[in-house]
Design a protein that fits this description.
CATH topology of the largest domain: D-Maltodextrin-Binding Protein, domain 2
Order of helices and strands: HEHEHEHEEEHEHEEEHEHEEHHHEHE
Strand content: 15-25%
Oligomer: single chain
Distance between the termini: 62 Å
Shape: globular
Number of strands: 15
Length: 329
């Protein structure tokens, strides 16, 4: 009985300790960044940004793997992270309380680091050539909280076929294998800069050929008109030797958003650190960060969504800021 009492007492002490520890505020210089699923380019990119800030400042930053931009914006709203990567299309849903968001999410843009196209691909030996051929098919769209989901749904809804599609939700580590094994009929595939496909699909391409499913530019323009974060992008023929021609596809820009309540001096410091060391950042992940730098950081932001005052201060110093952009107030 005494042994049981001692064990119970020890358990209660540990429980009280961990409960107390969990309630302690984070150190003033500790910040958490939401990245993306393991194996994704977003995960690698956020790691590169975090390590650069840690190396050049006294700030302590860490990153966590998430489902992507949609989850990162939700985590910002819950104050579980302070920074996160997000696609311009995610911001539209967060701003307008659409999709998984039950209410508007407050966020501020910091910098953009790349742009990407999101075509749907099918195996070259399949009979799928256009979006209409996807009726009744299984389409891989990445993790349920990822950015690809609302984009592809928006396109299929505009085509009027969304209700006939079976959406398959898998991580970007698992999805390419499912596509390769024929467990899905088609897959949405991120192409950075319209050329560099997700690494998992680069592996698939070593043994299998696939084609871009044709989309109509007019329909994509209608999708873009309804969503400030989506544009008409291009998938380049040179992405793979078996692609036959350039194809239009939904396009987005990708960047860093933050809790808008963070101090101006902090965001200025982080923005300056990253962009003053842009060559170093690019060298960490050259394939994923080809566009990273001052020339794209502001230009890639969505003009209708707020920019953090700290980031705006840096852009003004560099004579990049224009009144087309909106500052968070």
């Amino acid at each position: 009985m005494k042994a049981k009492c001692r064990i119970t007492t020890i358990f209660l002490v540990f429980a009280m300790f961990f409960s107390f520890s969990a309630s302690l505020p984070a150190e003033a210089n500790d910040y958490v960044w939401g990245s993306a699923s393991l194996g994704s380019r977003g995960y690698v990119i956020i790691e590169a940004l975090v390590s650069t800030v840690n190396r050049h400042t006294d700030l302590r930053n860490s990153s966590i793997s998430t489902a992507g931009g949609m989850e990162n914006l939700a985590l910002l709203a819950q104050e579980e992270i302070q920074f996160g990567q997000a696609q311009s299309s995610d911001m539209y849903f967060a701003t307008n309380a659409l999709g998984p968001f039950k209410q508007k999410v407050e966020f501020a843009q910091v910098l953009a680091y790349t742009f990407a196209s999101l075509p749907v691909v099918a195996m070259a030996n399949s009979d799928i050539r256009t979006v209409h051929d996807l009726k009744g098919k299984k389409v891989l769209v990445g993790p349920a909280g990822g950015a690809a989901v609302p984009i592809i749904r928006s396109v299929f809804e505009e085509y009027g076929i969304s209700d006939s599609i079976t959406y398959v939700y898998l991580s970007w580590a698992e999805g390419p294998e499912a596509f390769k094994m024929g467990q899905v009929d088609a897959a949405a595939v991120w192409h950075s800069d319209g050329v560099t496909a997700h690494t998992g699909f680069q592996q698939v391409a070593l043994t299998h050929q696939f084609r871009v499913v044709e989309m109509e530019e007019e329909i994509l323009r209608r999708v873009a008109a309804k969503n400030d974060g989506i544009s008409v992008g291009v998938v380049k023929k040179e992405a793979f030797p078996f692609y036959e021609k350039d194809e239009v596809a939904p396009g987005v820009t990708v960047g860093v958003v933050c809790d808008p309540k963070l101090p101006e001096d902090l965001i200025y410091k982080i923005t300056k650190t990253l962009l003053d060391n842009e060559e170093e950042v690019r060298s960490i992940a050259p394939d994923a960060l080809q566009a990273f730098g001052l020339n794209f950081a502001l230009k890639g932001l969505v003009k209708t969504y707020p920019v953090h005052p700290g980031a705006a201060r840096y852009y003004k110093e560099k004579n990049e800021w224009t009144d087309e952009y909106v500052m968070y107030k």
